[in-house]
Amino acid sequence: MGDPRELLAQAYFDHAPEAVALVESKTCALISCNRKFQNTVGPSKTLLGLDFVENCIQTEERTRFKIALENVIQDKPVSDISGDASDLEEWKQTPTIRDCSTLVLGRTNDFPIWRRYDWTLSKFDDKHVIMSGRMSIMDPASASVAHENTGQPSERELLDFLNKAPIAMHWLSGTGHVLWANETELNILGYTAEEYIGQPIMNFCPDEKELVLEIFKTLGSGNTIKDVPVRFRDKKGKIRDLLIDSNVNWNPDGTFKHTRCFIRDDTGRKIREERLRVTREKEQQLAKAKDIFVRKTFHEIRTPCHILWNHVAILEEQMKEMKLATSFTEAFGVAKLQTNRLLRIANDAADVTMFEMGKVPVLKVNPFSIKETIADICSELEEHGLSQDVVCSVVLGEKEGEAVPFSQVSKAAFKPDKIPDSVMGDARHLKRVLHHLLENSIRVTSKGSIKLTVGFWPASQDMPNRYCFTVTDTGPGIEELKVQECFHKYWTQVTLDGGAKKEFDDLSRDQHGLGLGLNVSFHLVQCLGGQLECSSSLGQGATFRFTVPFPAAQGSNMERSQEQFANLSVGDSSQSVPSWTDVTASGEAMRHIVAEARETAEVNLPPAVGISNELKRRPHVLIVDDNRWWRRV
Q1: Which residues are in the Histidine kinase domain (predicted)?
Q2: Closest to 68 (Cα-Cα) out of 104, 103, 98
Q3: Cα 621 → chain centroid
Q4: What does the pLDDT look like over 44-56, one tens digit per residue?
Q5: Cis peptide leading into 416, omega within 30 of 0?
Q6: What CATH code would you report for 13-145?
Q7: Do 401 and 344 meet the contact criterion of CB atoms below 8 Å apart?
Q8: Chain Cα centroid distance, residue 129
Q9: CATH number for region 360-549
Q10: What is the CATH number of domain 164-265?
Q11: Model's pTM, two decimal places?
């Protein structure tokens, strides 16, 4: 058995009518407390080890509390403690800090409330101080009874309301310790009040220490946080995804008092995000598989297409000298159109792959006529057939030009006349872009008009002549929020008249496509030095516009190229000439062409081969390689 005097002292300590506690003099850390202290001020498991002054004494009261502690330790007269003149005599009689605002946690999991306490300090030894306190008579301790008598909610009812609220809540001190948490939060994390309250919040989110410090920094700067995802660990060690909303309760002098934290279970959102991630990965895998299939398929198709196109060209030349039935000529025209279409699709698929790999086509700058290029496009589109309910026109000269039908473009002219028609550039890329834009407008416009306008800006000090090409239609249009999506690969969505959306997935319809044309056009315009833009809204049609620089061709450039080709003599063996229209073809196709020429048996073909447009008008063939050396066969 222990010393009876020690047992008696311990019994007196535990059963004292006042709240009594032992604290360290320097750190103010709570070391021990009696039952009265635990029942009224706060549980020992919550407060032991915490700085009592920093966590439980209001900011404006802390200075005099700490001065009182120092004076008690140094055995200074009580009169040295600064206070109001009216209290000075009373302070001399007893070392009591009267009417001190103290945060009372109450019994387990009670809501923290500020109470007025009178704290009496006495020195235990050089390192410890005993403090005893009782509620001040100035505090309306009987307020709950008064509320009950007047029909107002009592304090106990308010605490029950907060404890059992459907949203989790906790209260953090300025040192980051949990001073209170309601039952909802304890149930979410699986802790008891004794295990959770009084502990540093960092202990329950060890995986998010940097984030928690950042949250405290944000709150300390006067900001409110909302929907911040934080990973907590429950009692079993499992990670719980929670969302935190919090702000700070400030003292009147602007100092930090405590935080108000509300947390919500974020598991549902995480599950949805994970499902979306899995779905997105599957879509990416499917898109990748589609890319591989398209690339391989059109890689295999491209070479036969070129061979087929070259044979069609040979047959077309031979048919000019033959008298054939009209039905045969019409059938051959259909075969030619579809072969050309298949070749364009194969080229688009190959170019999309090239652009995705970060490669760009080499520009072949030659003199060409903008009007003739547009006339060729209009002629090809007319061969496909145009709706009688759609008026298709071209305006050469945005300000003064007149609208002319597709069939009359070759006879039209720029207005004013000073706008140069012969320019230096890559006609192939321009032709492909305009062909795609006009063809798309024709597909989606069932009635109204389609217009191609060519504008002109003369050269300035640092810029050459610029031409603005605008394609406008009266089709169904595109949603404004989805306008930029039209340049994405495989985009084929069109909103039809009446606002109904239609996906062109039914391959039995004529208005379907791979969704590559606009994507290829976008990149080709960039290669030409411009930017393809789209403006549209539902029911208002669509407008595609781009501006590219084309320097004017010198007056003799075009004529010299034509004359140089026309004056080639049969006896010449080789000389350098420009190739202005190159079409890649295979060696096998060229050997067929050579065999038809019947003037040579074997030809050493260069890596890249071009066939001049003059094939249609002259009886001989030019084979032109990338170095622009030609050989007559």
Answers
A1: 296-552
A2: 98
A3: 54
A4: 888 888 899 988 8
A5: yes
A6: 3.30.450.20
A7: no
A8: 60
A9: 3.30.565.10
A10: 3.30.450.20
A11: 0.48
